[in-house]
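Same chain as my last thread, 177 residues:
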Amino acid sequence: MTRQKKTRSAGSNGQRHLPAQEIRKSREPKEETKKKGAGLKSGSRNNVAQVKPASTDNAANKDKRIGSKKPIALVPVTEQPLVVSQPKASLAKVKAEVIAPEQELALIENDSYLQQLLERVEQNEILTGKDAKYFNAKTARLEQLLQQLGLTEQEAEVDPLAEFESKDWRKDLLGED
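reply #2:
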């Protein structure tokens, strides 16, 4: 017996493949229902014919869309002076409290954060960012306060080696030669 190739078709006894157009015809259409209205009909505010004339009870049937008929003066009335309310609080710039130099010097010397930064500098650590700015500002202010109060040691600035070299030792050792 010879071999027969398989085909994709189901054959004559399989279910027939219908085209899309025939499938649409065979379906039953859905029942069409009327959509519920949500809100008022469009254009109802412009439809003046539906607005019923107001009866004797004017407040109950008054149309809210129609504004007041009271005339408004376009020129300011001079009889009533304008009331300008005065503020209860006044604005002023904040003034820094003036501290005595001695007190400020004591505050800087007792600053624990500055002491920590000073220890880091003594350990040859390089300060960066906010730490460096804070350290520089406080040390500069400390020098200003020390100069202002006269507590700086100007003698310490003199180099002892320069003093030694400037002295004439020959006169001391040899006499008046």
